[in-house]
Amino acid sequence: MQVDNDKDHLLKAIDAFPHRMVVISSDYRVLAARGHLNATPDAAVAGRLCHDVFFHRSDPCAECAVKTVWETRRPAWSHRRDEISGADKVSCLYAYPLLSSDGAIEAVVSMELDLPPRTRVEEQLQRSNALLRNLITSAVDGVIAADRNGKVIIFNDAAAEIFGYTVNEALEQLDVRNIYPDRMEREVMRQLRSDAHGGRGKLRSYQVDILHRDGSRIPINLNAAIVYEGSTEVASIGFFHDMRDTLRMKKELEKTQVQLLQAEKMASLGKLAAGVAHQLNNPLSGVVLFTKLVLEDYELPTGATEDLGRVLNDAERCRETVKELLEFTRQTRHLMQAHDVNQAISRTLFLLKNQSLFQDITIETEFDPGLPSVHSDIQQMNHMFMNIILNAAQAMSGRGQLTIRTVYVPDEGCARIEIIDTGPGIPPDVLPHIFEPFFTTKDEGQGTGLGLSLVYGIVENHGGRIKAFNQPGQGAVFVIELPITPKADGDRSREQDA
Question: What is the pLDDT of residue 13?
């Protein structure tokens, strides 16, 4: 742009701009001005020295943007606070060269821009900082930031709950590398610096364990980032989401799904067993009937009579087994009713004790005759006792003593069932896990790890408790406590009729 010597032309040119502007020559004289803030009219400042007109100085200002433009041929700017701008304002002086057609500097335009009052800027910064602190403090995930030396510089309340440190302890004493076990901080930083999780300097949904203050491990879903100044790493920040509740709910859901599948399987097996029992019942009745007729109508040798007597006894025993099997598989549509626990255990033992696994096992029962009925689903009760008793027999390898005891505990309002075997007991490292789904110590193909987990679920569904422990030199003990159902005599009669 070429400067016109006509001051009116310059004034018209700078009038197009909304800011205060001054055109200054190489000797710091004002060629044209618009909207200056001192009392001198615009026309009266032309030809005067800019530093004299605006700052009452005899020499150019020490940090003069105009001087910088003349020396460097490039635009320049500076901040200042003075009596012209007002004591509560900060002015930005921006100067740029006006060039002739041959590229020479003809003049410099100086433009004054008012910034907001410093007090207002400081208030805005304070509000922004307070908002940022509140966001970090109230975050539901743990937020931790640390410098390159591992010193913690941000540690919010959620992090304090997860890690067990107070905020002050973490800020003053904690090295962020100490929250990772087995030097996992190196792997975390390696992943952060790779492109595998959202780009360099980012880490998204990374599963890692961290150490609680007491040394226990906590599963975490980590989102993290590296903080850069230019290309230099200066800090890192991580958002730690505690996965314990999520994993617990997932485990409970899987357990419930397994129980539903197993319940459906047991219902199908129950229907099959009931059908088979009905089919067996008719021919067995015929065997019993015609054996009795032969014994009554014919004079037979003593040996034949004894043989037919054995046939009759075995047939009667088969009929009793079928009867108990039908009762065991009776469809109750999972109705919760008052049931006799002693009778449920006896029915289970009747079906099991003649199996080959129990031939060398002595079974002793100590039933409390005054045990009140338990509000329960009889199918689930049968399933529960069947699982525990079979487990005990298998633990003893088919040889030993099985003791089943029932006791009424009036102070706790519950029926206590104790099932004790004389096997080798449960190893201490296995004992805490025996009720977990799919956990088994049996060889592959010999167990699913579902039996005791289903037992645990049944007891919980009935509002009861179950525990297992070892007796020194006497094998394992399972103790089940089920709440008692008070009932009137009429209820008992209706139950017996059912």
Answer: 52
CB 431 within 8 A of CB 470: yes
What string of H, E and C letters represents the secondary structure of 268-305? HHHHHHHHHHHHHHHHHHHHHHHHHHHHHHCCCCHHHH
Give the ranges where 91-183 is alpha helix by DSSP (H): 118-137, 157-163, 167-173
Read off the tokens for 443: 């060889």
How far is 358 from 21, CA to CA, in rounded Å?
Answer: 108
The confidence score (pLDDT) of residue 324 equals 63
How many CB atoms neighbour CB 283 within 10 A?
A: 11
Q: Residue for token digits 């399933």?
A: 383
- What is d(CA 82, CA 39) in angstroms, rounded to the nearest whole number? 15
Q: What is the DSSP letter of 415?
A: E
Is the CB of residue 449 less than 8 Å from the CB of residue 438? yes
Measured distance CA(370)–CA(363) in Å, rounded: 21
28, two tokens: 């710091």
Q: Which two tokens stand for residue 2?
A: 């070429």
Look at residue 179 in the predicted model and tell me its pLDDT: 92
Residues 6+ positions from 45 with CB-CB distance below 8 Å: 30, 33, 36, 53
How far apart (Å, rounded) are the C-alpha atoms in residues 344 and 416?
14
Check whether 219 has a pLDDT greater than 90: yes
> Residue 281 CB: number of other CB atoms within 10 A?
16
Check residues 72 and 276 and name the one with the higher pLDDT.
Answer: 72
Residue 338, SS3 per DSSP: strand
Q: How confident is the model at residue 210 (pLDDT cuts 50, 70, 90)?
A: very high
The letter for the amino acid at 271 is K
Look up residue 116 and give its amino acid. P
Query: Residue 489 to residues 21, 371, 486, 496: CA-CA distances in angstroms?
Result: 106, 15, 10, 11
Contact present, 17 and 111 (Cβ < 8 Å): yes
Task: Compute the mean pLDDT over every residue in the chain, rounded to the nearest whole number.
Answer: 79
Decide: residue 168, CB within 10 A, 0-12 exposed, 13-18 middle, 19+ buried: exposed
Q: What is the pLDDT of residue 449?
A: 46
